[in-house]
Predict the 3D structure of the following.
Amino acid sequence: MYQRNLKLGLTSLFVLALVVQSSLAVPPWLKLMPFQKIEADANKKYQLTEENGPWMILATSFSGVGADQDAHDLVIELRKDYGLEAYTFKQSYDFSESVEGKGFDQFSNLNQVSAKKMRHRNNYKSDSIAVMVGNYESFEDSEAQSALKKLKIAKPKCLNGGGLSTEGNQIKALRDYMRKMIKTEEKKQKGPMGHAFVSRNPLLPEGYFKPKGPSKLVISINKDSKNSLLTCPGKYSVRVATFRGAVEVDPKKIMEVEAMNSVSGSRLAKAAEKAETLTQALRKQGVEAYVFHDRFESTVSVGSFNNVGTPRSDGKTEINPQILRIMNAYKAGSVVGNRQGYAPKSISGIPFDVQPIPVEVPQVSIATDYSFGF
């Protein structure tokens, strides 16, 4: 009991000391805290940039007469009264130009076939001003979810009537109409930004949001492979053999596989075994072979290269001679005789693919190395 009281006393003194210290000098790390004061200068434009995000909340958008001013007013109010970092983002839409549709033009001739040309039913151009909120690291960010809940029920003064006209503003008119049609109490509690949602920063490239490297499960599956493709030093290799297992679509079984961090299913296990055996056989022949397993198949690749080929002036790529040599060495040969087709090459009864192809080597980031101990 004495030790417990002593610990509580020391903890209280430590907290008190921190409070006293913070009153004397503000440490640099406090500038990173979410409760810092958000700038809200009505004379300043807060426009979205690539440095914001990468994940944000699309609060609402405006179009038509006065859209710029309405968006600016909302940004300032969200910053000043709600403590949220808000920005404007302008997007232009052009529905006046023709687009290429599916199929072919019925008036095309046999010598010159052209794609079908189509036009939008509503032939017009317009601009939309979106109000984006926050700078969040991920979709599931707790701060993003908290801000989203706040925005959905918020009723900013600039959106609550305020004498704003809906003339020429389709979004405002639709918002007012939907508010009148609301029936349930739950929906009535939502404010004018009740349809806000978490979104990407539209200024960032699509590649920014693509998964970086293989998943934790795939890394775990390949961790014990002696010659895993994940250890290949080059950017590319040549896939010479593919062994497919049973594709698992049952969500419950997929969860079981992830929980065990192992390959399940007899067909998939046999596929993995064949790939391992073939890789070892190639290694014994002095071939730089690698094996790779995922949820659906196991593959064997040969070689390590930093480029697939050399770009030519006509826009095509001259394939790397070493890659081409490997592709020709393991591709299937033509069947001689009455039967037409291809006869895959094999080692110890294990066949290679009919046509080997260059593939990218899956890259494991340094962060992943530390996380999963690969």
